[in-house]
Amino acid sequence: MATVELRFSALPEHVRTARLVAAAVARRSGVDEAVLDEVRLAVGEACTRAVGLHQSSGISAPVRVLLIEEEKQFSIEVGDEAPRTAPGEKVPGAYGADDPDAESEEDEMGLAVISGLVDDVEVTAGEHGGLIRMSWPNTPPAALVP
Amino acid sequence: MDLSLSTRTVGDRTVVEVGGEIDVYTAPKLREQLVELVNDGSFHLVVDMEGVDFLDSTGLGVLVGGLKRVRAHEGSLRLVCNQERILKIFRITGLTKVFPIHTSVEEAVAATD
Fold first, then answer.
1. Per-residue pLDDT averaged across B2-7, rounded?
2. In this predicted model, what pLDDT tens digit does every residue of A53-85 receive, in sequence order?
3. Which residues lie closer than 8 Å to B106 by C-beta, 6 or more apart?
4. What is the CATH number for B63?
5. What is the ipTM of this complex?
6. 3-class SS at B13?
7. Do A105 and B61 touch (CB under 8 A)?
8. Are A48 and B24 within 8 A, CB to CB?
9. Compositional bias (Acidic residues) spans (chain A) (predicted)?
């Protein structure tokens, strides 16, 4: 199982980097070209959500993205460290504090896009943070051609 | 790749041509542009998305916010988009029912319903 791990400060400008890296690794692992747009969008949504959660909870830890190449599938895990006492519940903070409803609506919309795009998706959250795991089928390259 | 924005007036419509990527980083610029237009009295907007390479839910949120603002002034917000990858995002979120989506700026500018 080959893995690429990416950690980035919870800043909106780094979400694009995460999309680019995820798409590059997905392509390399043999994910169908037609599906790469979906991978890009889904990982962007998951990272956007994690950045929002870190900022609204005042968490300085980076957002973590794992890109996992397996034999028959390619998986992406996006983890945040925002604690929830109940799913979706947030700690008030600086980011979007003036309009918490709008932020929560965008968060919901991000999840709606992910579940609309990806067939194989798991969303979990607990007191130590949340995790979105998404998988796509792949066809790994049969052999390395120099 | 960043976000590019330019506006022009066609009759009583204001066409906003958007290019590049609309995501969590760039969407605030689009939001500012739409808010500014409405504050300046432009209530009939056509957002031309033909140059957009990427759109996420943050961008959708900004467009919905724009629609809400123009509707408060009995205005309209129409989209121009032919790209399947972008249209798909409107479909899976059900927003094709919310936004009139046109195939050309000419068509959007002429539309009245």
1. 96
2. 999 999 999 999 999 999 899 999 999 999 986
3. none
4. 3.30.750.24
5. 0.89
6. strand
7. yes
8. yes
9. 98-108
